[in-house]
Design goal:
Elements lengths: L5 H12 L3 H9 L2 H16 L3 E5 L5 H9 L4 E6 L2 H10 L4 E3 L12 E7 L8 H11 E12 L7 H21 L2 H13 L4 H9 L2 E9 L4 E8 L1
Helix pairs in contact: 3-4, 7-8
């Protein structure tokens, strides 16, 4: 896919599957997405941010989990896909902004924390997205990225790839009517940096102390860092 065409494709794709996005995520992850968010919430609770932005909030699952699980934190969700924001609003995440993660409409240094769950991977520029998240963070503010990754274990990786490319698109296609959405997902996971490659990219974009936390045999990774 041409990088300049990616934003429009991603917006159209998620607009088409917005109403079933949450259900399909639970189905395809076997319910593990609840666990991944719970780990993220525990980490954010240690930071005690007063104002947090959830970038690419989608249907609002992580933003809602943080608002519920971290006392005293005001959570704002941002996404460039209006139908997804409408789903998030119906679920109770009321502070929402329609915005591209590469051009966030917030004053520099205005947030204590920024999160992005399964959203950075879909941006036209990963470096641009991270840099923009860093811009709106206060010095010393915290970043959390949750996204898919490829397992490092030689036994697991080929099985996971077979699931991504052969099984996942079929199941998701039946559930959403958009098999191409999950064919895109598999390809995007293959291309997305993980582990050391991701922590190095994060630090290149103005952060320090970047750490990778593999979850579920490395099929998902959680990354944390501090704004310089």
């Amino acid at each position: 896919m041409n990088q300049q065409d990616k934003p429009e494709y991603v917006r159209d794709l998620f607009s088409a599957i917005a109403s079933r996005y949450e259900l399909v995520n639970h189905l395809l992850s076997g319910g593990l997405d609840f666990y991944w968010r719970a780990v993220a919430v525990r980490i954010v609770s240690n930071w005690k941010p007063s104002l947090l932005l959830d970038v690419a909030t989608g249907s609002g699952d992580l933003g809602l989990a943080i608002r519920k699980g971290v006392s005293g934190t005001r959570v704002i969700g941002a996404d460039f896909c209006r139908p997804m924001l409408e789903v998030a609003r119906r679920k109770g995440l009321t502070e929402l902004v329609e915005a591209d993660g590469l051009k966030l409409p917030f004053v520099t240094g205005s947030f204590d924390g920024v999160t992005a769950a399964f959203g950075l991977r879909n941006m036209a520029s990963w470096e641009g997205g991270l840099t923009e998240m860093g811009r709106i963070l206060k010095p010393g503010g915290h970043l959390l990225i949750l996204d898919f990754s490829l397992p490092t274990l030689p036994v697991i990786r080929p099985l996971y790839r077979a699931y991504l490319h052969l099984v996942l698109p079929i199941i998701a296609g039946v559930a959403t009517g958009r098999k191409d959405a999950y064919e895109y997902l598999a390809g995007s996971i293959e291309q997305f940096p993980s582990g050391t490659a991701m922590t190095q990219l994060i630090e290149k974009c103005g952060f320090r102390n970047a750490v990778a936390h593999p979850l579920s045999l490395g099929t998902v990774s959680l990354y944390t860092a501090e704004r310089v």
